[in-house]
Design brief:
It is built from two helices and 31 strands. By secondary structure, the chain is mainly beta.
Length: 382
């Protein structure tokens, strides 16, 4: 066991720890515990880093109403998801909660054979409790497992993961998801009077990401990105509870790699797709383009208060919050990573777990096998 707490360095203007293990390297910010991974392949001279990192340079509280923006990068854990603009049990929450901007302690690293576990700890002030963040990597694997272990909390709560990825500038990326019940466009569209623009029909329900209603009539296909430059879009889909595991993939065919994530449907029953492609003309976004957030959540973008009320998802049996018990630990497990793909590999149709291997199958039945060993253990038993 090693304690690397004193080894803070500056990574893209934020004090961070660097953790390297085999083919997966990452930095994690002290404020917010925001994670920026890089994946190394023997065939490639440079690492693959598909994640977004904010171009604004600040490690100060320049955005007091949304401090999550200060260290924004890669993936982070939020609690509550989206915060709450109305009090819940007398408490207001800033966007995405303390876990996305408060100061984490750590890291403590444990190594056993080819597996490395790195722990960080956060004490939450507003609704008393602690979060243990554990990141597990395995030698020579380009993926990592994240666990967030919640202890001491007793209020209804929402939470989620926020992988924010960069879209290619001169080519396309193909999005695939495991079966879902339905989706809804965010009810609070960007406001032109404030310098924000959305093209999807606010509040519209849909059955397929390939056919999402537009404001001006017609439909958008959100599985081929980017799809509509100059707008910011947010949709939520309900993962099908008949499947204990749910997956998301984003294929970069011209770049030759595939990003993926795996979750437990009962723990993270909703998915949010956030597309930032020039629709926010106000600071700090300033018309930035080419970002897609493939978020896995328990909760709605409208915030904690709305998630606790009857809504289109809860009315169809999809949970939008979790009632936590102070005497029980609750664990949220999330797997993500990257694999190389051969030329001609097409849009993913299916992802399967076969023993300790992930199997990606495209629409022409071409297959890619990715052995992941212990990283898959929590999902094999689901």
């Amino acid at each position: 066991m090693t304690d690397s707490k004193s080894k803070l360095i500056t990574v893209s203007h934020c004090k961070s720890w660097k953790i390297n293990h085999g083919s997966t390297h990452f930095s994690i910010t002290e404020k917010g515990g925001q994670l920026l991974p890089q994946f190394y392949f023997s065939k490639n001279k440079k690492p693959i880093n598909p994640y977004f990192i904010a171009p604004w340079s600040t490690d100060k509280n320049e955005y007091p109403k949304a401090p999550v923006l200060n260290p924004l990068r890669g993936d982070f854990f939020c609690m509550p998801f989206a915060g709450s603009d109305r009090p819940v049990n007398g408490v207001y929450y800033l966007p995405h909660g303390e876990s996305s901007y408060a100061r984490w302690k750590g890291p403590t690293t444990h190594k056993q054979s080819s597996v490395q576990k790195t722990d960080f700890l956060l004490s939450i002030k507003k609704n008393k409790g602690t979060i243990l963040k554990r990141i597990t990597t395995q030698q020579n694997q380009t993926a990592f497992l994240t666990e967030h272990r919640l202890n001491g909390f007793q209020d209804p709560m929402t939470f989620g993961h926020h992988p924010n990825l960069l879209l290619p500038q001169n080519s396309s990326a193909l999005l695939s998801k495991s079966p879902y019940l339905f989706g809804q466009v965010f009810t609070q569209a960007e406001k032109p009077a404030q310098g924000g623009y959305s093209s999807l029909k606010s509040g519209a329900l849909f059955e397929a990401l390939e056919k999402v209603p537009l404001n001006n009539g017609g439909y958008a296909d959100l599985t081929q990105l980017p799809f509509n430059t100059g707008f910011t879009e947010v949709v939520t889909v309900a993962s099908d509870p008949r499947f204990p595991l749910a997956w998301t993939t984003l294929l970069f065919p011209d770049e030759g790699f595939l990003w993926f994530s795996i979750k437990k449907t009962a723990v993270l029953p909703t998915s949010v797709i956030w597309i930032q492609d020039g629709g926010r003309h106000y600071p700090p976004w300033n018309s930035i383009r080419g970002i897609v957030g493939l978020e896995e959540t328990c909760g709605l973008v409208d915030g904690l208060a709305t998630s606790l009320e009857p809504n289109p998802f809860s009315k169809k049996g999809v949970p939008t919050f979790k009632k936590l018990a102070s005497n029980e630990e609750y664990c949220i497990e999330f797997l993500q990573g990257v694999t190389l793909v051969p030329k001609g590999f097409e849009k993913v149709e299916q992802v399967e777990i076969q023993k300790e291997t992930l199997l990606f199958i495209d629409r022409k039945n071409k297959k890619i096998r990715m052995p992941l060993g212990e990283l898959l253990t929590p999902f094999i038993s689901a």
